[in-house]
Amino acid sequence: MRKWMVAGNWKMHTTIPEAVALAGQVSAGVKGLSAGEVVLAPPFTALAAVSDVIKGTPVSLASQNMFYEEKGAYTGEISPLMLKDAGCTYVIIGHSERRKYFHDLDENINLKIKKCLAAGLKPILCVGETLEEREQGITEFVVGLQVKKALYGINAIDDVVIAYEPVWAIGTGKNALPIEAEEVHRFVRHLVGDMYGEVCARTRILYGGSVTQDNIGDLIGMEDIDGALVGGASLKSEGFLGIINKVLEKR
Ligand code: PGA
After folding, report:
1. Phi, psi dihedrals of residue 37, rounded to the nearest 5°
2. Is 165 in the pocket of ligand 1 (CB under 6 A)?
3. Ligand 1 in contact with 229 (CB < 6 A)?
4. Residue closest by Cα to atom 1 of ligand 1
5. Rounded distance, CA 193 to CA 199, Å?
6. Longest dimension (CA), the chain
7. For residue range 8-33, what is the model confidence (pLDDT) as tens digits?
8. Using one digit for the tens of pLDDT, what is the confidence trace for 186-237?
9. What is the pLDDT of residues 56-91, one digit of tens each?
10. 165 and 172 in contact (C-beta within 8 Å)?
């Protein structure tokens, strides 16, 4: 059985005191996680402080991005070694907002995943189609290409988590129907199976896009949906813990 994961992507929200308070509430509310994992992805400025708060709890830390070099003259960038130093276990890579606003191209995403793994960190690779692409019926083509390009040259997939996040569902309040999401998750699992063989049964594939405590129950009930990458609803501890509790009920 795959371990479920609920990850909170705080995006560009929270000051350090706000992040510390939210992480404290979440970690205090999380219990009995033998079958799952809870991950928090605060902004870079709050990583170290959140790392201290969650120490000794079952909650893990993620960053929302990284650069693919270890160090050097790259003003404004953060390296995988710095993220490890700050206490991260995971790194979100290729989020659609980074692809859209910061020109994070498939080639860069591939380099980031390679360097992330080389540093002993685990990538959460985000993929997903736009509304236009879905309407054109090319969702599988688009998502398939994103997965193949991101994983090009990567020999082992064990430490990679994939998040399917349809762009049209992110921050819009329009989540994919569980069956729509499941179809893409199953497609991705088969694709990973073609690339890596049997291990695809162990690859965790999260759903992301307007996940709340009201819709997670049906999503997590799907065979190939192993958890959620949550944006807006992760910014309040009650809502985020509500999602985790729904997952715990169903798994
Ligand atoms: P959302 O964001 O839950 O606010 O739609 C999800 C994400 O961008 O990871």
Report:
1. -135, 140
2. yes
3. yes
4. 231
5. 7
6. 48
7. 999 999 999 999 999 999 999 998 78
8. 999 999 999 999 988 999 999 999 999 999 999 999 999 999 999 999 999 9
9. 999 999 999 999 999 999 999 999 999 999 999 999
10. no
- CA atoms of 38 and 241, how far apart (whole Å): 10
| Phi-psi label, residue 161: left if phi above 0, alpha if psi -120 to 50, beta otherwise | beta
Q: Which atom of ligand 1 is nearest to the CA of 210?
A: 5
103 has catalytic annotation: no
* CATH at 181: 3.20.20.70
Q: What are phi and psi of 154, to 5 degrees?
A: -100, 120
Q: Quick check: pTM over 0.85?
A: yes
**From the CB of 208, is ligand 1 less than 6 Å away?**
yes
Q: Which of 165, 215, 240 to mutate to test the pocket of ligand 1 (most atoms within 8 A of CB)?
A: 165
CB of 211 sitting under 6 A from ligand 1: yes
Among candidate residues 37, 97, 133, 165, the one labeled active-site is 165
- CA-CA distance, 56 to 223, in Å (whole number)? 31
- The domain containing residue 107 runs over which residues? 5-250
- Count how many domains the chain has: 1
